[in-house]
Amino acid sequence: MKNHPDYQEELDRLTFTKAYMDSVIAAQETDQETLKQRQQETVEALDFKDSSLKYQDMLAHSNFMKMSKEQLENLRKLRKKPYFARINYHRKEKPEEEIFYIGKVSLFDRETQQPIILDWRSPLANVYYEGRLGDVSYEAHGETYEGNVSLKRQYSIEEGELQDFRDIDITTKDDLLQESLSQNADHRLNEIVSTIQEEQNRVIRADLRKPIIVQGAAGSGKTTIALHRVSYFLYTLKDIFHPEEMLILAPNRLFIDYMKEVLPELGVDKARSTTYIDFVKLVTKHSFHVRTQHETLMNVLESGAEDDARLEVASLKGDASFQSILDRYVNEMKKEFFVEEDITIGGFRVVNGKKIKRMFIEDYAYLPFYKRKKKIRQVLTSDVRRKKKVIIEKLSKKYDDELDKALYGIKDADKRKRRVTFLLDKKEEKLQEVEKEAKKVVSAHMKKFPNYNLTQYFKRMYQDEAIFEKVVNPTLSKPQNQKLRHHTMTNLKHKTIDAEDLATLLYLQAILFGIESDFKAKKVVMDEAQDYSFMEFVSLRRALNTELFTIVGDLAQGIYQYRGLPSWQLLQNKLFTSPNYLTLQKTYRTTIEIMNVANELLNYMTESVPKAEPVVRHGDKPVFYSMEQKGWETELVERYKSLKRKGVKTFAFIGKSKQECQLIYDHLQPFFPDTIQLLGEEEEMVTDKIIVLPIYLSKGLEFDCVSLMSFQEGYHFHELDMKLLYVAMTRPLHYLYFYGKQYSDFLLDHIPEAKYL
Ligand SMILES: Nc1ncnc2c1ncn2[C@@H]1O[C@H](COP(=O)(O)OP(=O)(O)OP(=O)(O)O)[C@@H](O)[C@H]1O
């Protein structure tokens, strides 16, 4: 690097950038006098010549910047690595080529508006990610700018010191990517802004106003890219969207913790990240116990009862056809709001019943039913108040006229007195009656409207046989009907619902009661999206009333296939108007040797998902170790120690089910007394421990070395087991081992022998 002709220039640039950052940081912290003095010192310390004047100027401007605390904090962090790339770009309209340095956030010279660092999310930075050298164009503010890139350079900067830099051209492979992939996993998502690849960049920057569905192979960067898209979204639409309006849905809390590590870096930590189960609980405030899809999966795996009615019912409740059942139910419930009686006070009609019904059906049709009810109450209250005044005036006038008549028309004093007293009393009584009636009439009328809560609505759908039959019959067969009702009613006796009922709750909540504005996300990101049922998508779409979904998943990893999405087409055809659909085929996590084995399983799956293409990185072939051999545990310990010595950091023992994991833990704990952790759903991973976890919890995670273990539960040659195995096999970065009784425990008998040892 030191012999490179640009070495000095690069060194100077880094020194200047750091000095500039220091000035900006100091400007926020220090008083102006001290600042001037400090700047003077910094300028004197900079000994590069040509551009020093320009730099001095820039430094002098740095104190005008006003920054938020957060920006300042970011700047401090970034000082260690201000930028990671540079482009030399000649825009057609400009007289000469310009140099741009690209980093995680932008920094501008206040006076000239020239970028000192260009944000990776800015339109111009797209040029770095897309294509290679030569003619390129980029879009900003609806305009296309043509130009030419003559240089793309990557930097490796550590603790503020330039370690290395190299140029990318058509022939050189992406060294930085290779280097980054060869590192160890430390239970967190890596920083990848500097190595985002072209196909990934397309996902990040795809039209932000449209929903996007991404089918991506295991390890293709779906999670990472989805989060970068969030960051890009917030940057590009910062004036319109706030991070709080963003909802990120992940499969479990463990995964959320894992994601959160990367969120602050991307500036999206204020987004709400949660699971679908927790989100529905928050929004609907239901108090049922939820039997999760994970529990169901475990039951299936541990009891082998795959034709369980529970699975069939879950599949029915998640299916697209269930929406018509719910719509029919909602329609039935709607009829109860058609209250058509007039409102009268003192015998006068004050509101026409037809008008009240019309308010519900037409005027407030855009509102949820109970919000309409509330509006109607408001309108009726004000109508009654207004009309009451008129009635009182009319009545008063009527009695006053009669009084006049009595006073001036009745000659007999006694008669007159009686008549006047009578009229005065009558007037008083009538007016009081009107006042009294007016006070109560609206409340009394509103009682004619239904008044149930969400739980009651949910129960009623199943408990009221006539309604149930009416709404379900057109869609389901008799036996399906019976199973659905029987299963749900049994659940309800135990105050329990299935995870698949949550979509019903959210759907009903949205239509009947509406969603509190605090929970109304405008943009939704769904990871591991293949595991959501169609109705879960429908319920979110309906509840949040937005099309802005980023949906990433992999059908080959659909281990909840009894309820999950059968294809992405369903979303494309039935849920969104014209979503973008993109695929990510290259896989970055694991080595060619491991992927070669995992890819074999895809041949046997019913979904036609393309095979993952590993980025060129070789490693050891996966190895099978027999548990029949005496002393295999001691060998395992030795293997572990040797890998540790080699610098391998994270290890996982993965079992098919929770039960299997308990066996793994119990058996191996004596061999790793202080270094093994059996992971539960609510627990955090302890650093430096070997993690024992079931496949469903390993989703989305990665480890340097993964050992699949089968004490009791082997994998069978059918769809679910192949998917489970595929998920497990694609977790390691570097090493994959199988520990079992025979090769067939891991379906290795269906995989060419040459691919493993
Ligand atoms: N462009 C990239 N540069 C460097 N590393 C990358 C890049 N893209 C992805 N990776 C790395 O590849 C690994 C897999 O990424 P990620 O977990 O986002 O993939 P995924 O598609 O969600 O995987 P899975 O579906 O198997 O859970 C991570 O370690 C990530 O940092």
TrEMBL record:
Q: Its GO biological process terms?
A: recombinational repair
Any idea which GO molecular function terms this record carries?
Answer: 3'-5' DNA helicase activity; ATP binding; DNA binding; hydrolase activity
Q: Record's Gene Ontology CC terms?
A: cytosol
Residues annotated to bind ATP: 216-223
Keyword Plastid annotated: no
User: Which residues does UniProt call coiled coil?
Assistant: 417-444
Keywords per UniProt: ATP-binding, Coiled coil, Helicase, Hydrolase, Nucleotide-binding
What single Pfam family name could you report for this chain, choosing any that match?
UvrD_C_2
Instruction: Enumerate the NCBIfam families for this protein.
Output: HelD_BACSU (NF041464)
Q: Which PANTHER family match?
A: DNA HELICASE IV, UVRD / RECB / PCRA DNA HELICASE FAMILY MEMBER
Q: What name has this protein been given in UniProt?
A: DNA helicase
This chain's source organism reads Pontibacillus yanchengensis Y32
